[in-house]
Amino acid sequence: MLKFIRSLYFGKRLFYALFGISILFLISFWFSPLYSITWILTSVLGILVLTDVSALFRVNGIEADRILPEKFSNSDDNRVVIEIANKYGFRLNAEVIDEIPVQFQKRDFLKQIRFTPHKSIEFEYFLKPLERGEYIFGNLNIYVSSIFKLAKRRYTFNKDQMVKVYPSFIQMKKLDFLALDQKINLHGIKRIRRIGHTMEFEQIKEYVRGDDVRTINWKATAKHGNLMVNQFQDERSQPIYSIIDCGRVMKMPFEGLSLLDYAINSSLAFSNVALKKKDKVGMLSFSNKIDHLQKASSKLSQLSRIMEALYNVNTGFYDSDFSLLYSRVKKYISHRSLLMIYTNFEHMSGLQRQLPFLKALAKQHLVVVIFFENTEMIRLTEIAPANLSESAHQTIAEQYAHNKSLMARELQRHGIQALLTPPQDLSINAINKYLEIKSRGLL
Prior knowledge:
Keywords: Membrane, Transmembrane, Transmembrane helix
CATH topology of the largest domain: Rossmann fold
Protein name: DUF58 domain-containing protein
Distance between the termini: 74 Å
InterPro entries: DUF58 (IPR002881)
Radius of gyration: 32 Å
């Protein structure tokens, strides 16, 4: 009985009808013939309500399921599918309210559907998480009513479904093609000027437009009568490490994501491309201590290990200890490696404090320091000032942006590769930097 009461609701039409009947009873105080008619209408309404409730509760006429992917991709649109089957023998009106995880702070989900008898329907919606972790869905609530819409019956399904949000593997798949063809050159995607290479000989092939004329094989050209060139392949199995700063400087948010999440998404996409290039990839995260260290490997399972490690990486409010990073790298990474260090410097003084440790790392390894442009400051420099106050703010923003460029030059002056990038372009630019280093044979 309690279950019946909890699942029974009444529609707006019933309350409108009761309000109308109340008005008629009031009017019948002065016009007595209306009193009998009002009671007849009340009886008819009661019969309709009982019929409606009986039809809805006679059988369990709704089956539904919320279909979730195995995992969500952070900062991407993830598809959620709702399947509903109508087993009633009459038309239904349904209101679907899905209890979305609290992380989304979305409390206005409502989907209105009309069902034909004994038919099924499917619809989808998309969720874009901005934090990694476990997301728990509540009830999938379906309120059904007949054509009278006097009463409703609530069905609930799929309580407490959980899905984990991992670093952006969708972004990783989108950038996967960059590892397949060195000649791909799409506007805004791959911007590499090939300067030189240290590659191993692979084969002799016929010259096509775009091949480096310096690789022409003149003996083979004379023999075949057509221009022939030597084709080379990249050096294989070089150790590549993504080193992620988890200190407080990485908590700064841009467009809903922290700098740490941008770095994590980029590390996953970059590691996938490096594995496709037959290099060994590893990962290290640190702040005031070493959080995770995944030794470089070229095994196919390495990407899964890195994803699981990145899933648990979090930032705090501690200052990052670059001296600890140097000591751990010197102890555990003995071979010359490419170190992609994701961090951020807001002031030249912050860079100067860490520069001795970066220079020490650069003596044994090829170090690429990746830090971020402040896009809000850049946007401020592009706005025409309307008054003196805005002009002063713009001047400070321009100085701030110029200091970022000075930091990149300071790193390069000490033989350290620098990549200054907007957060939203981080993955593309990091992969381009890696491919440039491969093509130049710097490692």
